[in-house]
Structure formats: C-alpha cells, structure tokens
Automatic annotation (TrEMBL):
Top EC group: oxidoreductase
Complex and partners: Homotetramer.
EC number: 1.2.1.3
PANTHER family, sorted: ALPHA-AMINOADIPIC SEMIALDEHYDE DEHYDROGENASE
Stretches of the chain forming a coiled coil according to its record: none
Family: Belongs to the aldehyde dehydrogenase family.
Aldehyde dehydrogenase domain: residues covered: 24-491
Keywords: NAD, Oxidoreductase
The keyword Oxidoreductase is assigned to this record: yes
Organism: Saccharopolyspora cebuensis
Protein name: aldehyde dehydrogenase (NAD(+))
Active site: E255
Superkingdom as given in the UniProt entry: Bacteria
Length: 510
C-alpha cells in the first residue's frame, strides 16, 4: 500500500503521455507549481459505462454475506490507519488543509469503517405480527443497487467515505466521481479500498468535469443503471442533481451548503465563544459546509465579544498548511476566483474589521503571523464584518472563504429568526450558560445539527449528518440513519395456513 500511495502522490512524471480525454493537473494550492496528480477526464460516456459495469458487479457483491462485507470495510479502516500520515500529507498537499485537520479527516474514515464493521452483523430487519393465524410478516433491508457518488474536494476522503463505506457494506456497487482538484486523494482512497478487497467493478472511480458528469448522469438514470445518487457540494448544483433525479423518480442524498449561525447569548462564556468562532469561521479557510457564516451576538456583549474576536484573529497564524496554522490556502483556483467575487461584493458594501488588508496575501499586502510564501499559494486575509444586516448579500449567501459577518440581537426569538433567515439549515450553534436558552434555540432553529457551547463544525461521524432547506432535501448521512439511503425496505408476507387468508377481510373478532 505504501508503494501504491507513493506512486499516486509522488511527483508527476514531466510531460507524461496521456491518451484519450482532456488532461487535468491537480495542483498544490500552497505551491501552484507543484503538480500533485495528473489525470485524464472522461467524457459524457464515462459515468454511464461505469454504472453499467457496476450493475453487473453488484449482483455478486450483494451475495457476499453482510458480516463478510463488514470485514472488508473494517480492512479498509485498518489500511487507512496504517497509512494515516501519508494520506493526511497527501490531503494537505493537494487541497491545502492544515496537517492537523487532515489527520482528523483521515481519522473520520477510520471511525466510519469501525462503525460499519458492526453494522455488517446487524443490518436488522423486523418480525411483525400478522392479523391472521399461521401467517408471519417480516421486513428486510435490501441494497438499492448502483449508487453514483459525486463529492466535493474540501473533505476529499472523509466525506466520500461517508457514502462509500455504508453503500458498500449494504451490498451496493458505487460509481464515485470525486472533485478533479482532489483527484490524487480520491485515487489513494480508492486504491486502499481495492486493496482491502472491494472488487474493482464494485467501486468505480470516474473523473469528469461538471458538464460530462451531468450529461452522463442523465444517460445512466435514463438507462436504469443507477438507483441512488449521493451528492455533496453547492446548493445550486445540488438543485440540478435533484432535478435530474426527480425526472427518474429518484430522491438523491443531498448534502449542500450552509450559512451556519452562531448565537452568542449575554450569559455566554465569551472566550469559549471566541475559540468556537475562530475555529469554525476561519478554520479550513471557511471552506466547510459547516463553517460559521453569521455571528449573532446579544447587544449587551457585542462590543466586548467583537473586540476579543478581532484580537484573536489578529494573533492567529496562517499560511503554510504543513505547519500549525489556523488555515492555509483556498482549495483551488476555481474557489479563489469565486472568493474574489465575494470580496468584490464586500468592497462595495462593507468596511471589514479584523484585518488591515482584504484579499490575496501578497508581498505588497503582508500579514503579521503569516507562515508561507505568499507568492506561491492561494492565500487570503481573514475578514470580519460587523454591522451586517439581514438583507446583505454576504449575510444571506454561503461565501466558502475566510469571512464571517456579525449582527446583533435583543431577544432569543430574534436571534433564532436571524439564524434561519438565509434559508439554509445545516448546522447552528448557541453559546449560553442557561439550559433554557439552549433548549429553546434547538427547538427554533431550522438546522439539522445543533451545538451548544461548541462550534458549528466538527460533527462526530456516527450522528445523523445533514440539513434542511437550501442545505439539502432532508436526507441524512452517517450512523444508522444513512442505512435508509443505501437500502430499501422489502416486506415478506408468509402464509403457512394452507388456506387463502385475506387481509382486512378474514380478521377474526374477539
Ligand atoms: C463538509 O464540509 O462537507 O462537521 C463536511 C464537520 C466535518 C464534516 C464537514 N466533520 O465540520
């Protein structure tokens, strides 16, 4: 496995011949000259071809007893554990995630595999009493068939594992289309899964751009070779995936964006709240779906809180992601371009706090506590915006970058309403020492995941993960809840009376 990984993560051979489709170079966002992986993108035929192959392979995989599939998944966990550091280094190198966080991300795969090892021996169905004598009813979980999994690159291995591991455990085959800019990490995880014993036809890796993916998905859905789509990414693309699936009567598992609020109540431990805001607002350069978007601070503690947060932000070290930094570069050039547009909006409408410069970190716009070479990477200053109003664009839309807005509130109902206003509903946090405030906040928020005295990020791998509204269609990943995405209930109605017993009609009375 070590040698497999090093062949994936080693320096790309200069000018190596690539036959067929367009070549894509995945670059290190901290050093754009460093090519991490070189892949060939498939055309619109790639995904349907892989789905057809997966469909053939799935029949045999579904015959493997679930406890044995559980052992394969557990084997993947052990292989990931044995390669934890090299996989984390690859994640850091390919998408610029600080190494400490990358290690945490890899741990999330191990935890997921551990959890689903046990599920291989459960996958419980039920026995259900019948209305009639000598008749027994049962329920079984059956695999859906072929799952197409389309993932973003901000969690290039952990989030895919949330789909891959349960889907495989449940007896499905998978076609995985990872983000191109995380192609190397995707390849490494797939290699480990194949090494662990997942047959190649059961886990298929397809690289394709957005257009080819969308065309390919439509063809595969129409051909009936795909029974489930899992998608993690932006709300806009998620809506398109939902539309495609809907045309073929399918409901996908959608894990989309967030504009996650954090409420700071007047009785909050302000230093704890500052730490939570720093981690979930600017950590991972604000590029988690669970990143903090809007800080909603009680007016009595607003000045004090913003002062402390501003100071913490100025003291934070950022830059080279191989070191101990709050955040490194943005994921990829495409994301840097998107963030530039957010910065244009900010420049037009707001006066940021917390940084003397807004925009790219360059020699000309340096920053204290910067630990990198600004010329080589996609580094951005942290932005803190005070005085946000609910109709501000930056208050309403996910920015996917190191920017957080602050607004104030008077009553808890106002705070809840402000938190829900953007129409997302993924993760929400409240900092308070009053249990009643915590409880009322949980009841009122639209978020699928709520934290009390902890940040909006960092969900544990065995709780239901997912959101509502613009954050998704209500589907949930992780833990036992994801089983409903990758299995369907089948009922069995077994009559051993030897007579035709009619439900609703032959029910005896007492
Ligand atoms: C994502 O950004 O798509 O809860 C997932 C968290 C991580 C997962 C984020 N465990 O922040």
């Amino acid at each position: 496995v070590q040698s497999t990984l090093s062949s994936v993560i080693g320096p790309a051979p200069a000018g190596s011949a690539v036959d067929g489709g367009a070549e894509y170079l995945s670059r290190n966002p901290a050093d754009l000259d460093d090519v991490v992986a070189r892949v060939r993108l498939g055309g619109a035929e790639a995904l349907p071809e892989a789905a057809a192959q997966a469909q053939r392979a799935q029949r045999e995989w579904a015959q493997v007893p679930a406890p044995v599939r559980g052992r394969v998944v557990a084997g993947l966990g052990r292989l990931v554990e044995a390669n934890k550091e090299s996989l984390a280094r690859l994640v850091t190198r390919e998408i610029g995630k600080p190494y400490g966080e990358a290690l945490g991300e890899v741990q999330e795969i191990i935890d997921t595999c551990d959890f689903f090892l046990g599920e291989g021996r459960r996958l419980y169905g039920q026995t259900v009493p019948s209305e009639m004598p000598d008749k027994q009813l049962f329920t079984f979980r059956v695999p859906v068939g072929v799952a197409v999994v389309i993932t973003a690159g901000n969690f290039p291995v952990a989030v895919p594992s949330w789909y891959l591991v349960p889907a495989l455990l449940c007896g499905n085959a998978v076609v995985w289309k990872p983000a191109e800019y995380a192609a190397g990490a995707a390849r490494a995880l797939a290699e480990l899964a194949w090494r662990a014993g997942v047959p190649r036809g059961v886990l298929n890796l397809v690289y394709a751009d957005g257009e080819a993916t969308s065309a390919g998905l439509e063809t595969a859905l129409a051909a009936g070779t795909v029974q489930k789509v899992g998608f993690t990414g932006s709300s806009a693309v998620g809506a398109r995936v939902g539309e495609l699936c809907g045309r073929h009567l399918q409901s996908p598992c959608l894990e989309l964006g967030g504009k996650n609020p954090m409420v700071v109540a007047p009785d909050a431990d302000l230093d704890l709240a500052v730490q939570g805001a720093l981690f979930s607002g600017w950590g991972t350069a604000g590029q988690r779906c669970t990143s903090l978007g809007n800080l909603i601070v009680h007016r009595d503690v607003h000045a004090e809180f913003v002062g402390r947060l501003d100071a913490a932000l100025r003291a934070a070290t950022l830059g080279d992601p191989t070191g101990d930094v709050l955040y490194g570069p943005l994921l990829d050039r495409k994301f840097a371009e998107g963030f530039e547009a957010v910065l244009d909006t900010i420049a037009e409408h707001h006066t940021p706090l917390g940084s003397d410069h807004v925009g790219r970190i360059t020699e000309a716009a340096p920053r204290a506590g910067f630990a990198g070479d600004p010329a080589t990477g996609l580094y951005y200053h942290p932005v803190l915006l005070d005085g946000m109003r609910p109709d501000d664009h930056v208050f309403r839309e996910e920015t996917f970058g190191p920017v957080v807005g602050v607004t104030t509130y008077g009553t808890l109902d106002e705070a809840i309403e402000l938190g829900n206003a953007p129409g997302y509903g993924l993760s929400a946090a409240v900092y308070t020492t009053d249990p009643a405030t915590a409880f009322r906040f949980r009841q009122g928020t639209s978020a699928g995941m709520v934290s009390v005295n902890n940040s909006t990020s960092g969900a544990e791998a065995h709780l239901p993960f997912g959101g509502n509204g613009r954050s998704g269609n209500g589907s949930r990943q992780s833990g036992i809840w994801v089983l409903d995405q990758f299995t369907r209930w089948q009922s069995l109605n077994w009559d051993f009376s030897g007579a035709l017993q009619k439900a609703q009609m032959d029910v005896g009375t007492v």
